[in-house]
Amino acid sequence: GEALLEVQLRRCWTLETALAHPALSDLATAGRDVSSADLLHLHLMLEASRGSESPMSAHLASLPSLAEVGLPLVWSEDELAELEGSEVHTECLKLRAEVSEDFRALQSSLEGGGKEQLLRDAGLGYADYLWARCIYWSRFAPAFVWRESLTIDGGAGLERWCLSVYFVGFFLLFERFLR
User: Fold this and answer.
1) Distance between CA atoms of 98 and 137, rounded to whole angstroms?
2) Dihedral (C-alpha) 107, 112, 113, 115: value to the nearest 10 degrees?
3) Measured CA angle at 69 (ends 158, 134), to 5 deg
4) pLDDT of 175
5) Quick one: 81 exposed, middle or buried, by C-beta within 10 A (0-12, 13-18, 19+)?
């Protein structure tokens, strides 16, 4: 089918672009216990903290705020209380505890690797991490890519992407490009 959208990989949030960030480049290679997902979270957080100075600022401006993501994970206690007694309520409480523990583990990993100032210097905290996790969860898509762009064609719809032997863990955030 005809190409509807082609996005250069350098414009996507990938593990490769996260590792190219000066503040993150040594995290994966120095034996630090930071997951690929957390590297993407950190990259998203650091670029968001740069505001208009970020090369990704136009895209970041199109993303919802923490209050706008709409996930039960970020609902107020009153909103969550409406679900009390349900499985969703129970799972939300578990997930809140898990995300909080994940943030503490990330802080510990950064401290153990001499990067304890990374979040502090950028003015980042738990709310920023929660936002990055919510954005990641709502927009992550693994993809196989064989060239320097991702093409979505009209014949296959948005669900079918070009495949090859080269795997890139994608964090595709297309709102800005689809407008």
Assistant:
1) 14
2) 40
3) 80
4) 33
5) exposed
From the number of C-beta atoms within 10 Å of its C-beta (0-12, 13-18, 19+), residue 147 rates as exposed
pLDDT at residue 42 tops 70: yes
171 vs 63: CA distance, rounded Å? 13
3-state secondary structure string across the chain: CCEEEEEEHHHCEEHHHHHHCCCCCCCCCCCCCCCHHHHHHHHHHHHHHCHHHCCCHHHHHHCCCCCCCCCHHHCCHHHHHCCCCCHHHHHHHHHHHHHHHHHHHHHHHHHHCCCCHHHHHCCCCHHHHHHHHHHHHHHCCCEECCCCEEEEECCCCCCCECCCCCEECEECCCHHHHC
For the ranges 17-21, 88-92, 152-156, the lowest mean pLDDT is seen at: 152-156
The owner of tokens 């996790």 is 133
